[in-house]
Structure prediction request, 928 residues.
Amino acid sequence: MDLQTLLILAQDAVTNSAIYALLALSLILVFGVTRVIFVAQGEFVSYGALTLASLQLGVMPGTVWLLLILAGTAAIMETIRLFASGARQELPKSLAVLLVPPLAIAGLVKVCAPLHLPLGWQVLLTMLIVMPLGPLIYRVAFRPLADATVLVLLIAAVAVHFVLVGLGLLFFGAEGVRTPPFSDAQLMLGTLSVSGQSLWVYATSTVFIALLAWFFNKTFYGKALRAVAFNRNGARLVGISPHLAGTVSFAFASSIGCLSGVLIGPITTLYYDSGFLIGLKGFVGAIVGGMASYPIAAVGALLVGFSESFSSFWLSGYKDVIVFTMIIPVLLWRSLSSTHFEEEE
Amino acid sequence: MIRRAGFILFLLLLLIVPAFPSFYLTMGSYIGLYSIVAIGLVLLTGVTGLTSFGQAGFMGLGAYTSAVLTTQLAWSPWLTLLVALALTMIIAFILGAITLRMGGHYLPLATIAWGISLYFLFGTIPILGGSSGIADIQALKLFGIELRDERVFYYLIWGVCLVALWISTNLLDSREGRAIRALKGGVSMVEAFGASGLRLKNVVFIYSALLACIAGWLYAHMQRFVNPSPFGLNQGIEFLFMITIGGAFSLWGAITGATVITLLKTVLQGILPKLISQSGNFEIIVFGIMIVAVLQWMRGGIWALVEKIIPPKPDRSVKETSGLTMRAPPERGSTLLKVDGMTKAYGGLMAVKNMSFEVSAGEIVGLIGPNGAGKSTMFNLISGELPRTAGNIYFGSHTISGLKPPQIARLGLSRTFQHVRLIPGMTALENVMIGAYLRTHDGIFSAGLRLNRSADEQVRGEAARQLRRVGLEESMFVPAGSLSLGKQRVVEIARALCADPVLLLLDEPAAGLRYLEKKELAGLLSDLRSTGLTVLIVEHDMEFLMNLVDRVVVMEFGEKLAEGLPQEIRSNPAVLEAYLGGV
Prediction:
């Protein structure tokens, strides 16, 4: 292997790692706040890229329908819940919160989709469609299970993964897409050429991670969210709503997923089911961080990115085998280094 | 009665399926295969509270091992079954050993990764035939006759499935099985009675993997062709869906779920693509929605509904004689427990500081102190649940500080828990039977093959005897979760007694008890003392304690404040100061 190849592989690795790191952060956040091991996180990656691709073609993306169906289901569930708990007077406000934004977004997309807007606006529109999916999925699938065990929540998450993948096929078909790059620029660093898109990935993920760090360390809501992750009951007692925290964490999950999809859409061909594996690689990073530590998870994401990139050079057929088998020694290391603790459920 | 009739009806249905067109026969065979895997998964998920997405991977391991060895080396399929089982056991053991020590969600995560890796390996390694798979696998031969007929194979599959069902049912109704059923509530209770939680979890995981491996082996010789696609992660997930829909808490839920999902999948795969006019696995949308709905509205699955309709199993009668050997009590008055300079520090906080006291055989000693005095910490140091910082504890002629709870239990120390740890779904009798874990020695194999009957009857008899002793005879067959808190505390004592202890440790036994219940409890404890049992009680309730105990040890701020006869303690100025804030 010469230096040139090494640098290209490393560049590839860093680009992918950045995405895995973003996903790992969001997985840890969702797990901490809601105890949901959100294996369906990766579906937002596919949805992001495929929604953008639909907008590129000037057609209404299928995810808009999903948005409307989820909002409708959530509205029905909310109505039943409020009637059952005798809080009927809250109904108009709750329904407005659940229904108005999705309807407005759907209307906006209906108008804007055929206009072939500039890429930046289309990305914005994509984010607008995919981001509300997270909180709505939380409302419909996970909030009624808030008192369940990690195991039950995991099974629910897997079920949501099945639904989202199936719908992905229904909405977008089996064809893969590649979205246009944000920039065609090529930056020459000595002999290495770095694509503009890679720079976009680095910049965006760095900004996003910095933003998250700022949010969690400096803002009131961020601290509240961390409090929920640390101790749900304690947080509830001091007046932090676990449901609000769950909603916010799922909004992060869908935004981060969608953003990742939009960012790597120009680099790899994405199919309706590609997101799952990407999400799981983020998971390997998160597991390296013990599902709890953000910085270690980021290191884990780098580990995943590099082993993937370099094994694709030497043993391309075994790329995924290597990445996923890596989890075993990682778990062994964690198992030996962690003190035995009991999980009370 | 209805249960038996239902079972016979089920068997008849199984018998006549081959009379129908071959489509139904094939469906029947698949349902049987999936049921075998699902039974293992019920034990793992519904009973033990763990789960695996890798069962399809283990199935693939069984199928591919046999496919390669029979086609490449022309080994007998019966020999390859043994190889496949050995291989599965090793891999399941490694995965379990690595993940089971940590939180419960690491096993499913590891099995997701393992399932994906294995799937890609099947498709990549040249000797495994790549994505086109391996064809012309040998047919099974039994007594020189090749089992090529689909009907014969159908019966073989269901024969295996029924045997798996029988073994699993036996296993759950055994010494190890009761301990396994107790694992969901955490391992500390079973460990206090001598079982190793980690070992039991590993056993269940290996057992479920072996069942999946057998199903895979049957699959390979039924199809006589294997390729990677039926062994991917999605199939692993579908197994989990089967037991969720069928009912994860019952072995029959496994068969129900396998049937429902398999039939529904076939129907949906026929209808949906036409409806949507596009090809693809759209049934996964329906499955996913179904699972979320089941989890939200009927967590016990279909079988829980069935259980509501059919009458419960009649209570099996109990012989109230127990032939279990009893320990010889130590000589009355000799030193039984000696705590010497025990210290427990959490960072800079000394929860227990240089505590020393003794308990003599045949006496009841009370350990009292204000809230936060370190009583429970002291208690957990004796029972071995907490590691010490310094000091020693001697029990009879043994040093027990540094030992784990199961080893300490083995020496004759038995305990109750401050927060009641009974298994709500098990009867009071079964809960008490867990206490006798160390008194019989039947393992997994003899339990599975029902060779443990006589020993198990003795344990039942012993448990019934203890329940009668504590006055809960009439609640024997009632689920422990439906008893009042007071009765639950007494069941805990009966369970501790069932271990035939030399020393009984009681952690706040009177908390939450009514006046009369306290009086009865005090009477029970005095009776126990008269039989030679030694008791150490941690308690708040002074009135309850002072009329009962022989001696009192008082703790404050992690240290011993006083020690002596109840009337001495009552007038000890330091104790009054600690309790009443100075008089």
Summary: Chain A has one domain: 3-337. Confidence is low (pLDDT under 50) at residues 340-345 of chain A. Residues 3-337 of chain A form one domain. The two ends of chain A are 52 Å apart (CA to CA).
